[in-house]
Amino acid sequence: MFYGTWFRYDNKDSGYRDRRKCIVDQFNTRQVVAIDEEEPPLTRGDVLSSTSSNDLQTSWNRVVPRSHNSASMNKTKQFRKAFFPDATNQEWNDWHWQLSHRITTLEQITRYIDLTLEERQALELSVTQFPFSVTPYYLSLINLQDQNSALRKTVIPSIRESFTCEGESDDPLHEENTSPVPGIVHRYPDRVLFLTTSFCSVYCRYCTRSRLVGGHSEALEKHWKEAIEYIRNTPVIRDVVISGGDPLTLSDERIEYLLTEIFSIPHIEMVRIGTKVPVVLPQRITPQLLKILKRFKPLYLSVHCTHPDEITEESAKAFNNLADAGVVMGSQSVLLKGVNDSVETLTELYHQLLKVRVKPYYLFQCDPISGSAHFRTTVAKGKELIHGLRGFTSGYAIPQYVIDTPGGGGKVPILPEYEVGHDAGNLYLRNYEGRVFAYPDRAEEGTEN
Ligand code: SF4
């Protein structure tokens, strides 16, 4: 960000308005606008992106066309017909059936997909301790013939996971260092992360907690009482994030127990559940579960969503039922190279989520977890994507782009450069079209900021 004293003029100058217009016009033309000798010249090219234009129509042409169609509905039907012709509707729609038919081995997956060399090597050599698992439902969303299918990259292991690059580690966020008792991560003052299970129905190959997920629930469940006691004895905590693994893979009884215990603590004001279940195992959102969730308020769901292909008839039904039960939902997505790193894909994902009452909440820069280099984009790419969203779609469709800082520093928001400079009287802001406007940012005379 460039801040400098570029313009010298007196606010009381009678020609102030004209001058301000002149200055803004200078940003919006190709003239050099630097005035102060101490600062280097600033050209329009410095402050405006290559996509800038004064022509509204040009900007509007960049609106992403709505292209999501009903293909995903048919994909699942065709998949069932080809691979599970004997499964009844009742079985297919039963989350226990989905879990017991998960695809977890090389032999099983080769029934459905011709693996690439990199995928086969990963599964043959079991190069990673991080297990492989995908539900039949989620596999049905993948275009099996397409080696570049976005969802395929997120769940089918690749040998590239075994290459650890500089700067990567198994616990880049140093969660282990901010864990006062097993199962609790207490990084921020007023809220904690409660890791309740290490089980997920589908394992995402870029998972930040791959060091601890993939085991059995019991491993973390045995610490629940101690974790709840910690929350009870720490009055500064007002917000609990129940995470894992995926907590919605726990039984109804276990979920009810956790929510009852946590909501019974007087200083707890809200509870959040982090989950990917509505998109990988939407069958889990049963009437019984909804009845339990409905009893606890305020309850928020942070849903891990990656790509518009995840928003199907089934997941839409799950989301709508959750919303009807009073659950407030936000999405969390990880920015992934070759999966969702385009304005078109993100726009479509966020539009689809809003339609099913999920507010796009966070877009995470991919954490430097060991073996994740093939998933990571540059931060510049992330900024470019946010720049491509802001102004071109509803503000509600735009998540906060953040980096969870390595070393346990917490989340830091990252923004494209909208503030292009300031002087004694104005802050200069670049809008979504690349045009620069002045905001009168000055304290009243005789007052301090
Ligand atoms: S659902 Fe979450 S916890 Fe489970 S593997 Fe994916 S990212 Fe990790």
Automatic annotation (TrEMBL):
PROSITE patterns: RADICAL_SAM. The modification N6-(pyridoxal phosphate)lysine is found at K411. Residues 186-397 form the Radical SAM core domain. It comes from the Bacteria. The keyword ATP-binding does not apply. The keyword Cell membrane does not apply. Pfam families: LAM_C, Radical_SAM. It is an enzyme of class 5 (isomerase). Its cofactor is pyridoxal 5'-phosphate; [4Fe-4S] cluster. GO terms for molecular function: 4 iron, 4 sulfur cluster binding; L-lysine 2,3-aminomutase activity; metal ion binding. InterPro entries: Aldolase_TIM, LAM_C_dom, Lys_aminomutase/Glu_NH3_mut, Lysine_aminomutase, rSAM, rSAM_sf. [4Fe-4S] cluster binds at C200, C204, C207. It catalyses: L-lysine = (3S)-3,6-diaminohexanoate. Its EC number is 5.4.3.2. Keywords: 4Fe-4S, Iron, Iron-sulfur, Isomerase, Metal-binding, Pyridoxal phosphate, S-adenosyl-L-methionine. Belongs to the radical SAM superfamily. KamA family. PANTHER family: L-LYSINE 2,3-AMINOMUTASE, LYSINE 2,3-AMINOMUTASE-RELATED. This is L-lysine 2,3-aminomutase. It comes from Sphaerochaeta pleomorpha (strain ATCC BAA-1885 / DSM 22778 / Grapes).
